[in-house]
Amino acid sequence: MYIYDEFDRTLLAERVREFRDQVARRLSGELTEDEFKPLRLMNGVYLQLHAYMLRIAIPYGTLSSDQLRTLAHVARRYDRDYGHFTTRQNIQFNWIKLSDLPDVMADLAKVGLHAMQTSGNCVRNVTTDQWAGVAPDEVEDARIWAEILRQHSTMHPEFTYLPRKFKIALTAAPHDRAAVRVHDIGLRLHRNGAGEVGFEVVVGGGLGRTPFVGKTIKPFLHKRDLLSYVEAILRVYNQYGRRDNIYKARIKILVHDMGAEKFAAEVDAEWQAIKDGALSIDDAFIADIASRFRYPSYEDLPDNPASLRAARGRDPRFDVWYRNAVSPHKVPGYSIVTLSLKPEGAPPGDATSAQMDAIADAADQFSFGEIRVAHEQNLVLPHVAQKDLPALWEALDRVGVATPNVGLVSDIIACPGLDYCSLANTRSIPVAQELTRRFKNLGTQQELGRLHINISGCINACGHHHVGHIGILGVEKNGQEFYQITLGGRADEKAELGTLLGPAVPYGEVADVIEDVVAAYIELRERPNELFIETVKRVGVEPFKERVYAAR
Amino acid sequence: MPLVKNAAIVEDRFVRILDDAVVPDDGEIIVPADRLLADASELTQRSGATGVHWPNDRNVSELAPYLDRLALVSLVFPSFRDGRAYSQARLLRERYQYRGEIRATGDVLRDQFILMHRAGFDAFEVKKQADAVKFAEAVARYSVVYQPGADSQSSAARRRRGRIGLAAVESAVTARS
Amino acid sequence: MTAPSQQKLKVRGPVVVTANRLGDGAVVYFTATGGWATQLEDAAVVTSAQDAKDLLASANASDIDAVGAYVAPVEIVDGRIEPGNLRERIRVFGPTFELPAVNAL
Fold it and tell me: What is the pTM of this model?
């Protein structure tokens, strides 16, 4: 993980001081709400239904155990003892006081945490694969590039007041775990025919009111050109993005309206003028950033040690968890462990301060002090020796983060919804809770296989419902909560938007409908291991619609 | 509306000429964009300095042919949330090497001073007196910046390189001795 | 419930003006004496669109105590003021499920 040097620390301290001054000027009335709002948003502070909400950045989803302990401290001291991990690898606290926030920022800054640009019309948290640095299928560690982009986009003098928010994601593996094709800029690190590693640049993806899968405007960009090319994209967007209508202000609208080719040409014209200038990246620049990334000193360990095999044979619960939550690691003898924050009946993605402390301890003991946050709202321990898996499992099981449902039907992604959010039309968390109760049987879940349900409480799509295998979108009809169901979305390298199943259904019927959709899948699948998403692709939505709406 | 230049409140010697009003031969004036483009040769032959007020939705590339004769370019923030003028200022400084005054007008507030300064603005028609008085302090908020701007502050990348370079020089010197 | 920022002001029954307190974000209601109270029972209730507009304008005259004021429906039940839709019920009673931390207030 990235270790701050004195430049990073100083900038953060100066940011904290600036924010303290801005809050004081707001509380005294020197700043109006209108003047203050963009400033507080750029420090991650929202006003929600009941209280302020603070969104803390977890850059490219990487946390140290000390940082996680500090988040637990914030939850205990300033909030109601829990936090929520988001679909952009950040964490949110829902009960924060504005008057406490300067102190919260100061506490966070002590461990290199901050809330810079987690909201506002600027470049947001640059996200990547939660397995970056340890995934067997990656070309290289994308986090170095995420950090380069993070620094470049932090308080950028030209791009701090863009037409709208701007989200960048990176992947470095053939299987895209970072959903890059539905981001404003998606970057895919890969090797070209000549064996060089560079970026495919995808622009104009996004969900929300007008969802789009992004367009490739540059199939191969050399590393040295990353910052100048991104600068060119941002400059074209800053100048031509719409500012008259917030629902038409994202870059996806500009790319769509201009056409991808014309947009690419505009970017290229701008880029030609700057590509050999100060933003050109040389090896020394990369080496400097990379020098502050720390990697574990892995031991020389065998794969599949006897002690692990024995534990699996001895304890069926451990074995079930092992087969679900443990993934291969690029280093022999190690594994990647996913911690499910989706226990039955619980709000998805939440963790209590006690759980955070326990996970921090487990990270110290078993994962070289490092934790990752997945955009599926789960956590990851990325460096676990296989011989330590039984002991780790016991520690995780004790605090309720070892539910073996990773990637299964009850591993639901949900936005906070109307229970928290002032933008929402309907609730989403209770829908998720009910679904986890309906599908609590582990055997059934395994039988169904990989199945992603995504729930959004409004069209802003923070639950990423468009790209869920089953997407659920809350809409309001005559003061009542209704939900539209879509099928067949996916967020990976084959990104696709879901197709509407049929008329919206009321709150009380959503879980029944989802059960019917799942029953239809069992009936329609060609063989047990044809995944839900594959069945939908093969037969389309009509057969599902017939079965689900037949009785309604 | 106080004018801030070189971190101090100064008198504004420039007069805004509106639309088709008569242009005096001497004295500093700021004309609207269309006026400049229509009467460029006449305007820039004046004995007094001429500046232009340029809207934020027009390419500054249109100004390029006149920049060597313009003493001032005045850019606009219709709302402080509309960031187009940042790009315009940056392009004027870096693409077109413009050395005259770039003035920020419109919704010009304290918390954006440092961004404007780094984007290449060097004069500010500040909305609030209280903000104008705090200009120097606001612009000095950050001793560290990550990226190069149109101002003279060194980016963190450059300073880190300097540190590596210094270390390399030092170790080479040590190795030699 | 449609986010209030998108609402057109249509009044079909008793309404109040509500907002969030500046310092801590707590839910507050505009009172007949021009202040902000944390209890719905202390809110000024009006029943016409014009009165609602006037009340909202008074509430918005200053943003030092409360921010984001909007008009919210209420129901009068046995003389008591009750929240008039799910969103306002959630603002009074909190999220519709148990919060994760057992110790949470």
Answer: 0.94
